[in-house]
């Protein structure tokens, strides 16, 4: 039976977000957590992951946008903060990225994840899906194959019919466009990817009402991203959406919902 991976992104971004994600995992509401090892709170928050069931996959959420980097990046982050995703994407498409800086930063984020978590990530993805951009993806895949050869990599691409069944399909199509060729490139490194992907929305709509549409037309490994949390972190434009997601996930019987769509949910 195809299975559902329901992943909470942005663990480590704030204590409140990390706490809620860890609680949802302990309650069996999610079965994967993507961690921002770049964030100052990662070292302390990583303790919340200890004791979670072995069925909870813990992965690395590579960060190349919006946050202070771990390494000196005078060309990509001259003011000490990584660029916005639109700026990063434009530079990637134009082949103007400082790939040497990015290689060092990605390696440092792997180091910090493994140092605190004690083992390699079960999967690798990217904040705002920056990991799929040209230039960055090649570095990410090579480093993942070297540091976490058993890991899988998030792919935002799926069948056209599946994408057209999703809410906010424009976001799905845009991310799928950037992800072209990722699964094939990952395979060349001996890495796996998910087969289908959901979770795009506007962070303002009724999350519980939208959720079943994230599960339509699944592949063998169907990945849904989520962003639950709490608190009001300065600059967090989706703080209200995080609270709604957390409340919705706590109320859902995920095994039953997954089964209705022909999916197995293990937590």
Tell me briefly what this model is:
With 267 residues, this protein is of the alpha/beta class. The chain has helices spanning 15-26, 42-45, 85-93, 99-117, 136-147, 160-165, 169-178, 182-188, 207-210, 239-251, 254-260; strands spanning 3-11, 32-35, 57-62, 123-126, 152-153, 192-193, 196-198, 221-226.
Polypeptide structure, described:
The protein has 267 residues and is α/β, with parallel strands linked by helices. It has a single domain, classed as TIM Barrel (Alpha-Beta Barrel). It is built from 11 helices and 8 strands. The protein has an 8-stranded parallel beta sheet with strand order 6-5-4-3-2-1-8-7, covered by helices on one side. Strand 2, helix 2 and strand 3 form a beta-alpha-beta unit. Helix 1 runs parallel beside helix 10 and helix 4 runs parallel beside helix 5. The relative contact order is 0.17. The mean pLDDT is 96.
Strand arrangement, largest sheet?
A: 6-5-4-3-2-1-8-7
The radius of gyration over CA amounts to: 17 Å
How large is the share of residues in beta strands? 5-15%
Q: In total, how many beta strands?
A: 8
CATH architecture: Alpha-Beta Barrel
Topology:
Layout: E1 3-11, H1 15-26, E2 32-35, H2 42-45, E3 57-62, H3 85-93, H4 99-117, E4 123-126, H5 136-147, E5 152-153, H6 160-165, H7 169-178, H8 182-188, E6 192-193, E7 196-198, H9 207-210, E8 221-226, H10 239-251, H11 254-260
Parallel strand pairs: 1-2, 1-8, 2-3, 3-4, 4-5, 5-6, 7-8
Helix pairs in contact: 1-10, 4-5
């Amino acid at each position: 039976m195809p299975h559902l991976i329901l992943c909470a992104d942005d663990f480590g971004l704030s204590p409140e977000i990390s706490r809620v994600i860890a609680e949802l995992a302990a309650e069996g509401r999610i079965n994967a957590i993507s961690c921002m090892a770049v964030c100052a709170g990662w070292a302390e928050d990583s303790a919340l992951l200890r004791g979670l069931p072995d069925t909870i996959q813990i992965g690395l959420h590579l960060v190349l946008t919006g946050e202070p980097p771990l390494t000196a990046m005078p060309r990509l982050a001259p003011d000490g903060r990584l660029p916005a995703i639109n700026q990063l994407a434009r530079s990637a498409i134009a082949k103007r990225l400082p790939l040497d800086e990015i290689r060092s930063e990605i390696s440092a984020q792997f180091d910090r994840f493994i140092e605190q978590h004690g083992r390699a990530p079960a999967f690798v993805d990217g904040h705002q899906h920056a990991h799929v951009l040209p230039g960055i993806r090649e570095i990410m895949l090579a480093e993942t194959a070297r540091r976490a050869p058993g890991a899988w990599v998030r792919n935002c691409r799926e069948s056209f019919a599946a994408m057209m069944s999703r809410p906010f399909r424009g976001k799905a199509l845009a991310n799928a466009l950037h992800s072209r060729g990722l699964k094939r490139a990952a395979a060349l490194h001996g890495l796996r990817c998910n087969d289908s992907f959901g979770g795009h929305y506007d962070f303002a709509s009724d999350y519980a009402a939208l959720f079943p549409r994230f599960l339509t037309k699944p592949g063998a490994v169907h990945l849904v991203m989520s962003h639950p949390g709490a608190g009001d972190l300065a600059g967090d434009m989706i703080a209200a959406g995080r609270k709604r997601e957390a409340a919705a996930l706590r109320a859902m019987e995920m095994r039953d919902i997954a089964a209705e769509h022909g999916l197995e949910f293990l937590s």
